[in-house]
TrEMBL record:
This is ABC transporter domain-containing protein. PROSITE patterns: ABC_TRANSPORTER_2. One of its GO terms (molecular function) is ATP hydrolysis activity. Pfam families: ABC_tran. The keyword Nucleotide-binding applies. The keyword Nucleotide-binding applies. SMART domains: AAA. Signal peptide: none annotated. Keywords: ATP-binding, Nucleotide-binding. It comes from Rhodotorula graminis (strain WP1). Residues 7-236 form the ABC transporter domain.
Length: 299
């Protein structure tokens, strides 16, 4: 196994292309993420912070002017073998909602080549090979996606919210297997999720994305050292983390604190730019009565 880092991202910027004479829309600015092989990194941030865009860049799906290296290669122009990306868009593909038997589907994507790993995943994810894709639930369809995506051995796995549809038992068994993959094969995982309970011992690192930028240090080693906890978290959060009667896991307490701070920063920016907060109920909105007066229902 090469000593090359699994992920090398330094001061990454990304903007959506300029359209209709409008200025490009910045999505990521100054993103940093360097991960050694064998790492398991959680990407934490609010909806719209840029987590999915970062994962798509690491998968070679988006071109950037900044350097983004994966397994030692510039990922867009020379995406190396062994990079697997699983995102939520798979579930909307009409093909995977057709009358297609799971056994035939898995064979069509190469399941016969990886029989041992395929069968292990079928057991972990509790998949019935006789299911028909148009008849199963979203959670069951997601299980099939994960089996199909993870059968072939991978060196870097990029997960974008794909465990959200899984029940607690299946999710726990999958995460245990993923940990084993990183420990036995030195594979690496970057995982964006909003579900933090029950995984305190799973990640080796955290990366906090706020308004499109990673906050230093990125990545942050987990569990936190006493020095990191004291320098990065207010006393109130540290007290809750040490409280055996806390409402959730230590990781959840950290994530909640970060998300509260993210919202404050977003509101501050909106007020500075627009003079008001953009989201939520707005005083300028017209009442429902005034809205419906605009329409003539007499005809």
């Amino acid at each position: 196994m090469s000593d090359t880092n699994a992920v090398d991202v330094v001061d990454l910027d990304f903007s959506y292309a300029k359209l209709h004479g409008l200025d490009p829309v910045p999505v990521l600015e100054g993103v940093n993420l360097t991960l050694a092989r064998g790492s398991r990194c959680l990407i934490i941030g609010a909806n719209g912070a840029g987590k999915s865009t970062l994962l798509q860049i690491l998968a070679g799906k988006r071109l950037t002017r900044s350097s983004a290296k994966v397994l030692g290669a510039e990922v867009f122009f020379n995406t190396p073998k062994g990079v697997t990306y699983l995102g939520t868009e798979w579930a909307t593909n009409p093909v995977v909602r057709s009358d297609l038997e799971v056994s035939h589907f898995l064979d069509s994507v190469g399941g016969y080549r990886y029989k041992e790993r395929r069968d292990k995943l079928l057991d972990i994810l509790d998949v019935d090979l006789s299911w028909h894709m148009h008849q199963v639930s979203d959670g069951e369809r997601r299980r099939v996606q994960i089996v199909s995506g993870l059968m072939a051995p991978w060196d870097l796995l990029l997960l974008d919210e794909v465990t959200v549809d899984l029940d607690v038992l299946v999710r726990s068994r999958l995460l245990d297997w993923l940990r084993e993959e990183t420990e036995t094969r030195q594979a690496t995982i970057v995982y964006a999720t909003h579900i933090f309970d029950g995984i305190d011992s799973w990640p080796t690192h955290l990366s906090h994305i706020q308004l499109g930028s990673t906050l230093p240090p990125s990545p942050l080693a987990w569990p936190l050292s006493p020095a990191d906890a004291e320098s990065l978290l207010p006393e109130s959060v540290r007290v809750r983390m040490d409280d055996p009667n806390r409402r959730g896991s230590k990781l959840l307490e950290v994530a909640l604190h970060w998300l509260v701070e993210d919202r404050k920063k977003r509101v501050e920016k909106e007020i500075a730019d627009l003079g008001r907060e953009k989201r939520g109920a707005q005083e300028a909105n017209i009442s429902s009565e005034a809205f419906y007066r605009k329409y003539d229902y007499s005809h």
